[in-house]
Design goal:
GO molecular function: metal ion binding; succinyl-diaminopimelate desuccinylase activity
Number of strands: 18
Pfam families: M20_dimer, Peptidase_M20
CATH class of the largest domain: Alpha Beta
Order of helices and strands: HHEEEEHEHEEEEHEEEEEHEHEHEEH
Number of domains: 2
Strand content: 25-35%
CATH architecture of the largest domain: 3-Layer(aba) Sandwich
Shape: elongated
Largest sheet: 6 strands, mixed
CATH superfamily of the largest domain: Zn peptidases
Distance between the termini: 21 Å
Oligomer: single chain
Helix content: 25-40%
InterPro entries: ArgE/DapE, ArgE/DapE_CS, Bact_exopeptidase_dim_dom, Peptidase_M20, Peptidase_M20_dimer, Peptidase_M20A
EC number: 3.5.1.18
Radius of gyration: 23 Å
Pathway: Amino-acid biosynthesis; L-lysine biosynthesis via DAP pathway; LL-2,6-diaminopimelate from (S)-tetrahydrodipicolinate (succinylase route): step 3/3
CATH topology of the largest domain: Aminopeptidase
Structural class: alpha/beta
Length: about 375
């Protein structure tokens, strides 16, 4: 491994401002890296102007299994620049860390995957089967890119998938899902001195709040790894002024699902609840979902999970935990593919993502490269 080249690759990715909807520049940079290798099949899948997914496919010397690698191109906004001691898009480095927006979440993991593939091509390493790297748009705001690639069949042949999200170098095999929903209420405006002449949209949302609380409260089964089902109303807005009955109001809720309470049955229950409320006089509610993400089921004893754990322990020289993640990843979309396959979430990042002075430890980044390389070569023997 050329440590200097590996770090330069990460720094160059961090310098590209791919905040939320400007991923094409990162995709273009990655394409240039693979242009010199005819063995790498690079497919650009456009999502929207300025937003492109990449699928990079490399075939081995003989037929075999197909291993997917996943990393997203987008990062969140740096927020208040004055809060940063290291500029968010400079890729600054000291003796221990590389800093920048996305260093942990998740250009560190993406850069490590890219370096492994470039090294594999340069050294003409032998393996059986196929490696397919997915570099996706829109993970931070709804997994748009992974959903698009899955719909188009790019994940249908996978036998296993590595998602390089930050895991503190722990092996994660399961994670929560997410349901973000919006309920809008339409009423009728009136003077507050004559409320009977109107229909208070906020009152409609109160009825919904009471009803969904009653629906969710009995759901008490606890996943042994991920914990309980979580539901929170997180935003509410409505009304125009203090002496007017509001004609419109909106409520937003967030549900963190588990394999014990998967998305589709819960969404069907919420839809039925809204339909029932709309049968009552005075209610005009509309339900909208914002890019729900399914929970990731998994088996900690799956051979692919245990292979990852074995390689990580050998490389790091200590025990490696096999755990779940409270967040969601692009795996929520990729598992909708034609066949089932095990997923491991493993990356060199930490808890600094989405914060000022986000960073990745250099030793963790280098270790991740070694671990990815060994897992790939052992899985595709």
């Amino acid at each position: 491994m050329d440590k200097r080249k590996a770090l330069i690759l990460l720094q160059e990715l961090l310098k590209i401002k791919s905040v939320n909807n400007h991923e094409a520049q990162v995709a273009d940079y990655i394409k240039l890296l693979f242009d010199q290798y005819p063995a790498a099949q690079v497919t650009e899948v456009n999502y929207a102007p300025g937003r492109s997914n990449l699928v990079i496919t490399i075939h081995g010397d003989q037929p075999g299994k197909t291993l997917g690698l996943s990393g997203h191109l987008d990062v969140v906004s740096p927020g208040d620049i004055s809060a940063w001691h290291h500029p968010p898009f400079a890729g600054e480095m000291d003796t221990d860390n590389v800093y920048g927006r996305g260093a942990s979440d998740m250009k560190g993991g993406l850069a490590a995957l890219i370096y492994v593939l470039l090294d594999l091509l340069a050294e003409k390493r032998s393996f059986a089967g196929t490696i397919r790297l997915f570099a996706t748009v829109g993970e931070e705001t709804g997994n748009y890119g992974a959903a698009q690639l899955t719909r188009q069949g790019f994940a249908d042949e996978l036998d296993a998938l590595i998602v390089a999200e930050p895991s503190n170098l722990q092996v994660e095999y399961t994670h929560r899902g997410v349901i973000d929903y919006e309920v809008s209420a339409t009423g009728k405006a009136a003077h507050s001195a004559n409320p009977a002449a109107g229909n208070n949209a906020i009152d409609q949302l109160f009825r919904f709040y009471e009803a969904i609380t009653a629906l969710m409260t009995p759901k008490t089964k606890v996943d042994p790894v991920l914990g309980p089902l979580l539901h929170n109303v997180t935003q509410i807005a409505g009304g125009e002024q203090i002496n007017s009955i509001p004609a419109r109001a909106r409520l937003y809720g967030n549900i963190r699902t588990t394999p014990l309470y998967p998305n589709q049955p819960l969404m069907a229950e919420i839809e039925a609840l809204v339909a029932e409320l709309n049968q009552q006089p005075g209610n005009e509610l509309q339900l909208t979902y914002h890019y729900p993400e399914s929970p990731l089921p998994g088996n900690p004893q799956a051979p692919f999970v245990q292979l990852f754990r074995k390689v990580a322990m050998h490389t790091l020289g200590h025990k490696v935990a096999v755990v779940g993640d409270s967040g969601a990843t692009d795996a929520s979309e990729f598992i909708r593919a034609a066949q089932k396959f095990p997923v491991v979430i493993f990356g060199p990042g930490n808890d600094s993502g989405h914060q000022a002075d986000e960073y990745v430890a250099i030793k963790d980044y280098i270790a991740a490269i070694t671990i990815y390389q060994q897992v790939i070569l052992q899985f595709l023997r």
